[in-house]
């Protein structure tokens, strides 16, 4: 069997069961021989951080309702009126002069990165950073959300195809007697060079002016494993997309954190598909996190939502919480960020749904994702206790069973959650978490 290169995972098209086993074996080999140390936790001794990035402040303004976010270690509202938050997201209109085309096809700030002034952008971006993050000792998450175009030519498809069209038009206007193939190649080179300069330059500015913050781009990396309706779907990232992610080494090497997203759809009724979708996206981020020139792995903070992508006010089931946030924790992500837009507080009824005080126990157990932080913390506690008790290898199986029982008892005592663990599905997921922590 060929050796596994340090910092990389191999992917092959094999039967699902075999793929899962092979994936875990590769993870173990990678962990044992190639893994860099993790960066110290952002907050205290919290190895898995819970962050809130949704506009709950609107609940106070619209309905005079105060909501405690004490379950989250850091929080911030994405609304532009707020500054100095320890979770700061920079949308397209909040950081410099980001060039893009709006929905009507009108160019904003030049439309294309090669048609816009990088110097002017960085000058404005410096002022924007000082405004939204006034503290030079900022120690939070700084997330840049630029979604209109991607820095790689071949990844600009569908609505993003306009960036390829307009780039080619610029070249065709500037050069005579060139073939269509030459036009496209020149357009590709100029677009990708300028896109890299914009993204890399912005990250460099952020890390220089707020060096203690964790800087990165929302949705990066992306494994593009969206073909969930395929008959044999197992969530594996396409080989072509893995290669493209490797080509973005300059981006990972300029970042100080990675922010992949796990937005799942309710229409994907098979929750196992959601598990495979989430698992492979997190694994791809962790793989890339180890490839940089930094002496530690970049921390991965997974962006997710309270609700489903196609039905925002249908809150994630307990099973899908485990398959997204729980799986992220088990695989080694540094934390998760709950994102939401103004739809979350569009009505009093909608707002109260996940925060109904009389039903708080039920919500902690099934709807509010921060409960997963408690779950992971309790699993780790149970594992530590179990490791002390399990000194001999022959007691290994008994030790794990004891940990599972201890975990169930601890969860009930700490959260008062009326959760049934008798189902095979729940037991399998919890044992999966325990097994992963036993290996670490």
Automatic annotation (TrEMBL):
GO CC annotations, alphabetized: cytoplasmic vesicle
Reaction(s) catalysed (UniProt annotation): Random hydrolysis of (1->4)-linkages between N-acetyl-beta-D-glucosamine and D-glucuronate residues in hyaluronate
Protein family (similarity comment): Belongs to the glycosyl hydrolase 56 family.
Domain of life of the native organism: Eukaryota
Keywords: Disulfide bond, Glycosidase, Hydrolase, Signal
GO biological process: carbohydrate metabolic process; hyaluronan catabolic process
Protein name: Hyaluronidase
InterPro entries: Aldolase_TIM (IPR013785), GH (IPR017853), Hyaluronidase (IPR018155)
Cleaved signal peptide residues: 1-34
EC top class, as a word: hydrolase
PANTHER family with a match to the protein in the record: HYALURONIDASE, HYALURONIDASE-4
EC number in record: 3.2.1.35
GO MF terms held by the record: hyalurononglucosaminidase activity
Gene3D superfamilies membership: Aldolase class I (3.20.20.70)
